[in-house]
Structure formats: C-alpha cells, structure tokens
Write a structure and sequence with these properties.
The chain is an alpha/beta fold. Helix content is 44%, strand content 20%. α4 links the parallel β1 and β2. The mean pLDDT is 94.
C-alpha cells in the first residue's frame, strides 16, 4: 500500500468537503467550474483525481457528460456508491501522469483538483498539466488546484508548534519553503511555483483564485457560526477571492487556464 492509499483509506475527505469550512472551498470551486463550462459551452468534462466524487458526481447529476479518473481504489468505491446508475458518468482507475487512453482535444473542461497535492517534483507537475492540456479541446478550460506553502507554515509550523521538528527533518528550506516527499502526502507550493508550471504549457491563465481564503485560519468559528453569518462569510469570500494580494495566503488555490 502506498502512502497515498494509506492516507485516503483512513481520512474522511468526504466529510471535510461537507463541513462548513470545506463548503467554502467547494462552493468557490463549483462557481468557477460552472463559469468555465458556460464560457466553453461545455458538455464533456474530465476530472483527473476525482477522489470520492464530490465534484464529478454533482456535475454528472447536473447533466454533464463526465469522465472521472481516480488512482485510489478506496475512493473509487465511495464514488460509485453515490451513483444510481442513471448519471452520464464513466469511472476509471488511472494516473494523472498518463492519460494515454484519451485522444487529443477530447474534453471541453478538464479538472485537476487533487493530483498536484501529491506530485513532488517539478517534472511530475509539468507532466500532469501537459496531459490535462493535451486531452482538452483548443479554447477549453483546465482548472488546477494547489495546496499553498505559507498557510501551512503559519498554522502547522507555528500555531501547532512543529517548527523545530520540521527544521530537524530538513522539511523547511532557509527561504521557508516546505519540502515534501510521498510519506508527507501533501506537496506545497507558492504562486511563483504555479506560474513556472504554467509556463511549460500552451495555455493562458484566466484567473488564479483563493478557493478558501482565510477560512482555515478560523475553522472552528466558521464551523460553529450561525447560518446568517456563514452566508455573509461566503459573500465576503467570493468578493475578495480573486484579489492577488490575498491568494498566496489561502490554503487552497484554483488556477484557471485556457488552452491556446
């Protein structure tokens, strides 16, 4: 069993996205998926790294023709359990680094909402993006999610008092960039790292969005707040989530690209 399989076999990713703080990321991501789909006149959607199907199943139930590719068998089982058999969705086990089963220029929108969390070298990230771009139609959209470096330093390193441990294990550079390996599960980037990956592909960036913004810094408050305050938080967050002075401080970001 890989570190990734072990992690997702024990971690409740589904309930994270259903929690109040997780809903912020989900609501934001779905807003931009729908915007891209509308702009592209999309019907065919590919999600690479579909996880437990939070996005793929919802999009299929909306009527999109969805192909969901997921590496971890445990996640595929959960995804399939949500289907009643009438959704226009195809579920496959596969790897973001090799989408050779799909022809060039096939999908209107390609979602890469999880794989970049678990790819630890620049070459692997470049390859995953290249494959996503290859299978997307010209003028179509590629939406890529990342976990960000500095929120982890602030919350995990300082607030959870892990700083000495991280330096002793050589997991922080002198420039305060986190160093991850497969056993650490998550790979963390900065906005300049995302730009460098984008520069390797024949794409134009449309937007770089903070998908949860300040939410995870105040997770307990968000989870426990009343409905009216939560609605106001969503309104505030969606108003500021494209501000580039705030994006790097978000735990998760969404890179919205259009294939040239």
């Amino acid at each position: 069993m890989t570190y990734l399989e072990e992690f997702y076999g024990a971690y409740d990713e589904e309930n994270r996205l259903l929690s109040r703080h997780g809903q912020v990321e989900y609501i934001t991501t779905m807003k931009y998926i729908h915007a891209a789909a509308d702009e592209a006149g999309a019907r065919r959607v590919l999600e690479v790294g579909a996880g437990t199907g939070r996005y793929s199943v919802a999009l299929a139930k909306e009527g999109f023709d969805v192909t969901a590719v997921e590496l971890v068998e445990h996640n595929i089982e959960i995804l399939k359990s949500k289907l009643d058999g009438n959704e226009p969705i195809t579920v496959l086990q596969g790897n973001a680094l090799d989408l050779s089963e799909f022809e060039n220029d096939t999908f209107d929108v390609t979602l890469l909402l999880g794989p970049m969390y678990h790819l630890y070298t620049f070459d692997d990230k470049r390859q995953a993006l290249a494959e996503a771009v290859r299978v997307t139609k010209p003028g179509g959209y590629i939406l890529v999610s990342y976990c960000m470096n500095d929120p982890t330093i602030i919350v995990y390193s300082f607030l959870q008092n892990k700083l000495d441990e991280l330096f002793e294990n050589h997991m922080l550079t002198p420039e305060w960039h986190c160093v991850s390996t497969p056993k650490d599960v998550f790979e963390l980037v900065r906005t300049e790292d995302i730009a460098a990956i984008d520069a390797t592909a024949d794409v134009t960036r449309v937007k770089l969005v903070a998908t949860d913004g300040a939410t995870n810094y105040m997770r307990q408050f968000i989870d426990e707040t009343d409905d009216r305050t939560f609605e106001r938080w969503i309104d505030y967050h969606l108003t500021v989530c494209e501000r580039q002075d705030l994006v790097g401080a978000s735990h998760h970001t969404l890179d919205i690209l259009r294939k040239n």
